[in-house]
Design a protein that fits this description.
By secondary structure, this protein is an all-alpha fold. The chain has twelve helices and no strands.
């Protein structure tokens, strides 16, 4: 009786420890299920593709509207005329005085010098002021007064002081780029978490170590927000300075084309200025992603209203 019970318990059909082996069909053991084919990504779902399509739709509507309503070309030129003027300006040699390369090189040099000097001085003063509350309270009314002065009104005076060379344009750009970086850097240094500072002080950290480990990393998103605003203001400052008085530059080229009633050429120069601003902003965003690699994407792209 005991032997029969043991035989039944060892039977694979009645044992709960092992699952019964699958029955082999005439063609052999069953093959595993094939993976499902992956769906192809829709190219129209890309934000970049949608942006390009939107631009093409806007330009097409512009061209069709100007042609359909017969708008005078000296008021609003069609897109085709702007593209022709853009090709004509880019097809010239790099030293041609009537081409985009020569005047664009002068404007880019002014923008880079003014941006680097103005933002660098603004960041340096922001660091010093943020570490000295008394100095901040002393300089705050003067900074507010200087920031409220319209830089366009001061531009002719700067040109009289420094002449028609590159120095006056760099000074105007410095005035436009100085205040955004100064204000955002001070706001960034004030936004540091006090608990982090208390923790470092409890570990006997020096003022330099507190600044390097806590204050400066916390202020970096604000600083880059100010740099992005300063990049846009630098392009505006260069054109304003060249409008007031200059010997070369894209602003001078715009004035020459407007004197000749070449509205398409003026729009083409504005396209070149827009490309310069886009390249500067994209370069700053790449640097920001590299520097703030330790922060989440939504935090590193923080914007600050000033």
């Amino acid at each position: 009786m005991t032997t029969a019970m043991l035989a039944k318990s060892d039977s694979p059909a009645l044992s709960g420890d092992r699952a019964p082996a699958p029955a082999a069909g005439p063609a052999g053991p069953a093959s595993p299920a094939s993976p499902r084919p992956r769906r192809r990504a829709n190219p129209l779902a890309s934000t970049r593709v949608q942006s390009i399509l939107l631009l093409a739709a806007l330009l097409g509507s512009w061209e069709a509207g100007v042609r359909l309503f017969k708008v005078p070309q000296h008021l609003v030129p069609p897109v085709s005329d702007i593209l022709v003027a853009l090709w004509r300006g880019l097809a010239t040699g790099p030293l041609a005085k009537d081409g985009f390369w020569y005047h664009g090189g002068v404007t880019v040099t002014e923008i880079l010098l003014g941006f680097l000097v103005g933002s660098g001085v603004g960041l340096a003063i922001g660091i010093v002021v943020s570490q000295m509350p008394r100095v901040e309270a002393l300089l705050e009314p003067y900074v507010a007064a200087l920031q409220s002065v319209p830089k366009v009104a001061v531009a002719p005076i700067i040109v009289v002081w420094l002449g028609f060379g590159i120095g006056s344009k760099v000074m105007i750009i410095c005035l436009l780029t100085f205040f955004p970086v100064l204000v955002t850097s001070i706001a960034g240094f004030k936004a540091v978490d006090p608990d982090r500072i208390d923790l470092l002080r409890s570990l006997s950290a020096t003022q330099w170590q507190i600044f390097r480990k806590a204050k400066f990393p916390s202020a970096l998103p604000y600083i880059f927000a100010g740099l992005n605003m300063a990049a846009a203001f630098s392009v505006v400052g260069a054109v304003v300075g060249e409008f007031v008085g200059a010997q070369a530059g894209l602003g001078v080229l715009i004035l020459q084309m407007e004197a000749q009633a070449d509205t398409g050429g003026s729009f083409a120069v504005c396209v070149v200025l827009s490309v310069i601003g886009i390249v500067m902003t994209d370069l700053l965003r790449r640097i920001q992603r590299r520097v703030l690699h330790w922060m989440p994407a939504d935090t590193s792209q923080r914007t600050v209203n000033v």
